[in-house]
Design a protein that fits this description.
With 307 residues, the chain is mostly helical. The protein contains 13 helices and seven strands. Strand 6 and strand 7 form a beta hairpin. Helix 4 crosses helix 5. The radius of gyration is 22 Å and the shape is globular.
Amino acid sequence: MFDLSSEEKRLIKRGDLATLAQLDQRGLLLGPGENSTKYFGRLKALQKNLKEFFDELHAKKEMDFYGIKLSVTESMDITHFDEAGEVTEDKFAFRLNWAPGFCNNETMGLLFAGCALMDNEKPFVLFLIRKAFAKQPKWFVYSRKELLAHESTHIAHMAYKTPDYEEFFAYQTSSSLFRRAIGGLFRSPRDTYSLLFCMLSMPIFQILNLLEVTSFNLAYVAIILYIWPTIFLLQYIMRMKMLAGAIRKMESVVTESKYAGAVLFRMTSCEIETFAHVENPVEWINEQKELRWDLIRYRFIKKINRE
């Protein structure tokens, strides 16, 4: 949980960049279009909701949370957040350790490792991971550090709407080159289900033909079924090429090259795609007038490149 002192509240409402930078580093990012008043209102509501949650949990020791039975004894160890913070600090320049987290298998599927539960409107966030992670860093094919780092990016982005790159950023926390490369391929459940349908339909048609239930021309079926996956993959390759170009441009203006990804993480999908094609990145960055961009310039952009 996080507490805002009276002085911090005053400075946030004033839009003090040093104070906003401290909050940004804790994963409490300014959202697109937010001014200091809206940002303060969101933080105040989040702090209130988290306090009410913790007060009820510690008073009752156990509570029902949207059908999930949570116990104070299942609370995650703070060191679990620290190990995930090492990853998110390196990738995106923030460490998130204020959200409640529980090691609880309630309502989890057989192979489900965990998730972040978020209500962007309320607002409220909560980590839920398997009980096995309470005592061991790995379970099945999952790593506790990577799981928490992955979900931390989603929580940090709670004020954003960036479906095109949300999973790309989240999977950059993985230690696997393969997962980092293809993690952003599926932007929504619809993408996943559509691709699975196309891939699994071909064997079904083959079986139906063998059983003489149907007599489809499998060559035509293959062409029809694989057109969409091919287009889908080509679009992803083009997006990744565009992102790589945006990162290279950003590396030329940030204080350290590792912050290029941190800046893109704080941009909207539209901003990323526009920035990838600008001829003068410094000029474009200085043209952005939101408080979010004032903070980005304060934290990450070389002084020589600021207006």
